[in-house]
Design a protein that fits this description.
The protein starts with 6 loop residues before the first strand and ends with a strand. The protein is α+β, with helices and mostly antiparallel strands and 305 residues long. The protein has a domain at 152-301: Regulatory factor, effector binding domain (Multidrug-efflux Transporter 1 Regulator Bmrr, Chain A). The protein has helices at 22-37, 47-54, 61-69, 73-91, 97-103, 109-120, 124-129, 174-187, 254-269, and strands at residues 7-9, 152-157, 160-168, 197-201, 214-219, 232-237, 240-248, 278-282, 295-301. The chain has nine helices and nine strands. The protein is elongated and about 75 Å long. Helix content is 35%, strand content 18%. Strands 1-2-7-9-8-4-5-3-6 form a nine-stranded antiparallel beta sheet, with helices on one face.
């Protein structure tokens, strides 16, 4: 497959980028933690609201949170609900367990009991009878710097003009959208047999409902000013300085590289990200490559000064 050499290597500290220190990311996560704690019903908080509080894109903030707290935002909020319920059990004997369960967002006594016992190691009734100290409260957790991974490159990449189709839904099914846009492009003589392929992924599957996941996927056309029709459209991936990490292996394991790059590398990098999706550049094809040998570049555009 044509790998489409569109980038130029640059020093690891290129000029013109907005610096963002570890203390800045720590302050963002602490502010987000405080905002969640101030809402007695954290399940009502939307991913978009949480991202705004953290001053990050919805596609990125939760991976930083996971790396710095060791758990996802959703797991953190579930833990807060259970801790709130534990306080109710201990200090409000007049409240029935079912009422406490419903107030914590659980639909039944049984579901609440299972969740409480899984998290604390005893049932709500047992805890009410003997309210011994529980595990460390989520609200007291402190964000810590994750270990920074190796293998991240900073590159200056020129704008990339594509012809794309919008993909909705499960990212594991995005191959069908690639087939669709490439078949259209080949039928219109807009691309060859092995065009350079890219995907721009706007959402995080861990916080966005599967049916609402969005991606724009497509190819580099053989000629400029290619005309589009129907669901197909031109799109330009912006030029700039990108953080790039190479993933080798099946596409379904890409989330590991995402977490390494966004969750682990970013907070200690000294940089901030543009509020846009993640670019994937596919350097070989699953048509003639074993899954374990697939090579994908994961690219994040860094915020200019």
């Amino acid at each position: 497959m044509d790998t489409h050499h569109d980038d130029r290597s640059t020093p690891q500290k290129p000029q013109g980028l907005r610096p963002s220190t570890l203390s800045d990311y720590t302050a963002r996560m602490t502010r987000l933690q405080r905002h969640i704690a101030q809402h007695p019903e954290p399940e009502t908080l939307t991913p978009q609201e949480l991202a705004q509080v953290a001053c990050m894109s919805r596609a990125h903030f939760h991976r930083v949170f996971r790396a710095m707290f060791g758990q996802s935002v959703m797991d953190y909020m579930r833990r807060l609900r259970l801790e709130y319920a534990a306080k109710q059990l201990r200090f409000h004997q007049e409240l029935g367990i079912l009422n406490i369960a419903l107030d914590a967002g659980y639909q039944s006594h049984e579901a609440f009991t299972r969740a409480f016992q899984t998290h604390f190691g005893l049932t709500p009734s047992q805890y009410r009878q003997d309210p011994s100290p529980l595990a460390k409260a989520a609200a007291t957790l402190t964000p810590t710097a994750p270990p920074s991974p190796s293998g991240v490159q900073l590159r200056r990449i020129d704008p990339i003009n594509l012809m794309v189709v919008r993909h909705w839904g499960d990212y594991q099914e995005v191959g069908h959208s690639f087939e669709r846009v490439v078949q259209w492009g080949q039928g219109q003589n807009h691309c060859g047999a092995e065009p350079a392929l890219y995907g721009l992924y706007h959402d995080d599957p861990d916080i966005t409902a599967q049916e609402h996941l969005r991606a724009d996927v497509g190819f580099v056309p053989t000629a400029p000013n290619t005309r589009a029709d129907g669901p197909f459209a031109p799109m330009t991936i912006p030029g700039g300085t990108y953080a790039v990490m190479t993933h080798k292996g099946p596409y379904h394991t890409l989330r590991t590289t995402y977490l390494q790059l966004i969750g682990f590398w970013l907070p200690t990098s000294g940089y901030d990200l543009c509020l846009e999706g993640v670019v994937e550049a596919y350097l070989n094809s699953p048509k003639d490559t074993d899954p374990q040998d697939l090579i994908t570049e994961v690219r994040l555009r860094l915020l200019p000064a």
